Amino acid sequence: MVVISDIIVQGVQMLLVLLLAPLLTGFVRKIKARLVRRQGASVFQPYRDLLRLLRKEVVLAENTSWLFRVTPYVTFAAIWVAAALVPTFATGLLFNWTADLIAIVALLGSARFFLALAGMDVGTSFGGIGSSREVMIAALAEPAMLLVFFCIALVAGSTQLSTVANFMASSYVGLRVSLGMAVIALIMVALAENARIPVDNPTTHLELTMVHEAMVLEYSGRHLAMIEFGAFLKLLLYISLIACVFLPWKIALFGTGPLAYAAGAGAYVVKLAAAGFFLALFETATAKMRVFRIPQFLGAALMLGLLGTLLLFVSKSF
Amino acid sequence: MSSLVLQMSCVAGLLGIAVLAIVLSRAKTSTTIIYCATTAVSLVALFGSIRFLVGEAPNASGLVLPVGLPWLGAHFRLDALASFFLVVVNLGGASASLYGLGYGHHDPAPHRVLPFFPAFLAGMNLVVLADDAFSYLLCWEFMSLASWALVMAHHREPDNAKASYVYLVMASFGTLALLLAFGLLAGPTGDYGFAAIRAARHTPYVAALVLILMLLGAGSKAGLVPLHVWLPLAHPAAPSHVSALMSGVMTKVAIYGFIRVTFDLLGQPIWPASVVVLFLGGTTAVMGILYALMEKDLKRLLAYSTIENIGVIFAGLGLALAFQANGQKLAAALAFTAALFHVLNHSFFKSLLFFGAGAVLTATGERDMDKLGGLIHRMPFTSFVVLVGCVAISALPPFNGFVSEWLMFQAVLQSPELPQWALKIMVPAVGALLALAAALAAACFVKAFGVTFLGRPRSTAAEAAHEVDRYSLSAMFILAALCLLAGVLPGLVIDALAPITIDILGGRMPIQADEPWLSIAPIAESRSSYNGLLVMIFITVSASLSVFVIHRFASHALRRGPAWGCGFSDPTPAAQYSAESFAQPIRRVFGTLVFRARDHVDMPAPGDVRPARLRIELHDLVWEGVYLPIVGAVGFSSDRLNRLQFLTIRRYLSLVFATLVTLLLVLAIWS
């Protein structure tokens, strides 16, 4: 019985992230449009975009190899597996012991590794420019994220995400300087990893200013649909991650009844909406940075993460 | 037959093959015969050492041969630690020999390679087996000289002579440091047997000095920054299967020496030692990979990436020293296991990648990545296995590189309980450096694979490339499979390493075979666990599921068309991103500080028809700041001393007299 409910909880979470991810992106776009007093497309537009892309034919660049055609599925799978490991409305996922926070970073790293290779596969300068900038951003964002997770793991005494969420939700953690630094650093990393303003502009149409978009410039049809879907999922993943670690309000603990699960799911949707709103607000209020200002931005995240971890190492009370 | 006797007979066999190679010398079939024989002998030695390591409670056994110093003899001993490194050596040897069966036929001068190849393998085996200082140093020198001869195999190529000269100088320097270290360890009684050294008590000063000398001696062979300068010169200069052995295996033999002395012979470590090792390890990891990112020669890039991995291993050993000095056996075992696991992993994927580079070299005759490209179309199998190697070395799941990196991070997270303040600050900083190195490694191998195998060919040689022979491919496929196996079944490897940690540290990690579903948990499942097999299954299942759904419901239409060029489709492949331009963002972020990198743009005025030029200025600060001054000082003093050759007999006599008086004075004051 317990196993069955475990499987249901795990399966529902995996499907839930798939279903909610496009909605979240649509919601962010809608809010952004409303903030600049435009009507904006419906919040369901990303679903329609995905369906439209699925129906279109694929135009492959002449030089591309099998790697280019495999990459959309590999990246999507890696991001989905990572997203399935992050508790959304309930902790105690069935397979939470499969991989921990460090493995989630590495899974996202695999997705990016293949996307960057696909950018190089085309044999044009646009793919190259996108890949080379993306790996530069990743080279700073990934260690920053790992340090944030070190910090969290030291506070919670575990790198296991469900254990961390349980710890943060159940016991009195209190206000900690380290965790404050960690949350700021993680938000900065999340902005960079999801190619959001101020690091990258997801809606740009000028190739030379693109980073992520330049890398996937040659993708079309069903391949592009998978990559877009992966990007939606990744945004959802980061928000769920921040929510479950730093804002575990109402998250259903392991083994509580269906009522708690329902409350957790409701709270989760509210958290997503709030995060989406603040993301849209922030993106409307700031301008994109020059490419070579990004290292300073991410360097600050790295230093915050390191400082937070260092504080935990040298003292127990921060 | 005892395992040690088996290993020694394998060594004798290898030496015999070396002699046979001299005899056969220029015979047509010599390449096939020699590599077949080394493959067979290495395989026997490999299975012997695996059987010893994972068999029933490995008992150390010793052997004394009546050679060497008359009052000492030559001691050899096989214990758990030695058998693990024998596995690394002989696995590398067997795969390199198998690869050589195909690759060796392209060698322009096989008679310069064949005799030294088995001798090199024998030398590495002997270093690991040696059990007294004298035979250790002798075998170490034998290994160095054999590898030096292999570096000199293509002696007419430009730069190879310089590479082997630098190697020879650095190897001699390293041996000198080792000689002094063993001299100190043996103490005034001069007992050179390892058993006697282990039993003796060493004062902290001696221990500190020995540690520094070992870092110089073993560190220069392994490639610790700033002693690494010979490595990117010498490793690529050798034939590719030898490069793989030097990078993947010989550096590990140096690490074996370091472990044997600092963990085993010196006894209980002191914590300041770990600060030095951690610092060197972290710096080496980041510096090595930054050098690799700046490189556009494929084999040199791989050699620099070896330096990075050595840094990671030393960081793990530093953590183990820190925990061991504070008596935290479990954490020490975790860090030590992580380091040894990385030793094994690195020998897998670095050999694989060097084989891949050799295949590219055979197919195109090019090592310069800016003249390659598009090889994935012409060398599908090679590019697939090299891709596996690149993913593994970039520490991405579900491959093996990730597991050792993950264990390393788990060890870092064990360290807030360390009492010393220096370590409290040092360990998270090293953790950050390791994280940075891992991320940069991924960037580096996107570059290496992307520029070499993807895109459009940048030269006619790359256009005319063809797939390599079956032997080379099978060697690479075996290593790629091992990368995956060690990644999805890490528990087996960790359990196999347990006898070593019990032997050396007196503690072990929890038995991983007891964990459900083949997952690994370094301390306890509630703290951290990882299951490579399930991660692989999940990725495969979700990827297949999405492929199935897409192909069931989405459009199947597919058309090929020209790539989008923003209205200006570039006709020449030279307009693609090259190795140098790919690294440009990272060069700007890190290189301005580390390499004093500057871009000089020469843009002609409008109307001028001269082409615009971009020149990149990079400084190797280690070479310019440390080595060039030393070279200058040596040159200067030898010029001065040169004058002493042209003195009159009267002056020589007065010189001798003055020396005598000075020495007597010194003696008088001393006593």
Automatic annotation (TrEMBL), chain A:
Q: Which UniProt keywords apply?
A: Lyase, Membrane, Transmembrane, Transmembrane helix
Pfam families membership: NADHdh (PF00146)
Q: Name one GO molecular function term.
A: lyase activity
Tell me the membrane topology, using the record's own terms: Multi-pass membrane protein
Enumerate the subcellular locations listed in this protein's record, separating them with semicolons: Membrane
Indicate the transmembrane segments per the record.
Answer: 7-28, 73-95, 101-123, 135-157, 169-192, 231-249, 261-282, 294-314
Record's protein name: Formate hydrogenlyase
Q: Which organism is it from?
A: Bradyrhizobium hipponense
From TrEMBL, chain B:
One GO BP on record is: ATP synthesis coupled electron transport
Which residues span the membrane? Answer: 6-25, 32-54, 80-101, 113-129, 165-185, 205-230, 271-294, 301-323, 343-363, 384-409, 429-454, 475-500, 530-550, 652-670
Q: Where in the cell is it found?
A: Cell membrane; Membrane
Q: Which UniProt keywords apply?
A: Cell membrane, Membrane, Oxidoreductase, Transmembrane, Transmembrane helix
One GO MF annotation is: oxidoreductase activity
Leader sequence residues:
none
Provide a GO CC annotation, any one.
plasma membrane
Q: How does it sit in the membrane?
A: Multi-pass membrane protein
Tell me where in this chain the NADH:quinone oxidoreductase/Mrp antiporter transmembrane domain is found: 130-415
NCBIfam families with a match to the protein in the record: PRK06521.1
User: PANTHER family attached here?
Assistant: FORMATE HYDROGENLYASE SUBUNIT 3-RELATED, HYDROGENASE-4 COMPONENT F
Kindly provide the name given to this protein in its UniProt entry. Answer: Hydrogenase 4 subunit B
Origin species: Bradyrhizobium hipponense
